[in-house]
Amino acid sequence: MKRTFKLIGIIAFTVIIGFLFMACGEGGGDPGKITITNYNGVSGRFLGGVSNDTNYVFAASAPSANFSTFNGVSTSNNPITLNVYKKEGGVYKPFSGNVTFPSNDLWFGETTTQNIFSGFPTNEWNSSAVITITDGNVTINFGTQMTKH
């Protein structure tokens, strides 16, 4: 009898763990957002960004692993909002966590084509301040936190 209750307990525990894993899913969900204010580039172009190690990207949609598609966001809007993605297992997935980037670690490029890496950047910026993403979100003031090159 004692053995039966122990077996039932183990089965119940296993079922609960299984349900918890199913509820968590594969990650994903909605990406965090970078809101860009005081944009000093050209309106009507496209903007995207990356961290120096390319583990984080800021774009309209998740890029392909080799960046053959990396769609920027139109610079016609003010403020400009980019989605945040993080590379996990070679694939870019929506990111909604916390991360701090040191000064000079983030790069943004503006191009005339929506696919950022299919055209030559007309303008480039890098971070001149520490940038912290909290719960996937941050506002970057291009006038004070970025340096145009």
Structural class by secondary-structure content: alpha+beta
Helix residue percentage: 10-25%
Cα Rg: 21 Å
Task: Work out the helix count.
Answer: 2
The coarse silhouette is globular
Largest beta-sheet characterization: 10 strands, mixed
- Total domain count: 1
Instruction: Give the amount of beta strand, in percent.
Output: 35-45%
Element layout with pairings:
Elements: H1 2-24, E1 32-37, E2 46-51, E3 56-59, E4 73-74, E5 80-88, E6 91-94, E7 99-101, E8 106-111, E9 123-127, E10 131-133, E11 138-141, H2 142-145, E12 146-148
Parallel strand pairs: 1-11
Antiparallel strand pairs: 1-5, 2-3, 2-4, 2-8, 3-5, 5-6, 7-10, 8-9, 9-12
What features would you highlight for this structure?
single chain, alpha+beta, ten-stranded mixed beta sheet, 12 strands
Please provide a written account of the structure:
- This protein is an alpha+beta fold.
- The protein has one domain (32-148).
- It contains 2 helices and 12 strands; from the N terminus they run αβββββββββββαβ.
- It has helices at 2-24, 142-145, and strands at 32-37, 46-51, 56-59, 73-74, 80-88, 91-94, 99-101, 106-111, 123-127, 131-133, 138-141, 146-148.
- Strands 1, 2, 3, 4, 5, 6, 8, 9, 11 and 12 form a 10-stranded mixed β-sheet that branches.
- It is globular and about 75 Å long.
- The N and C termini lie far apart (76 Å).
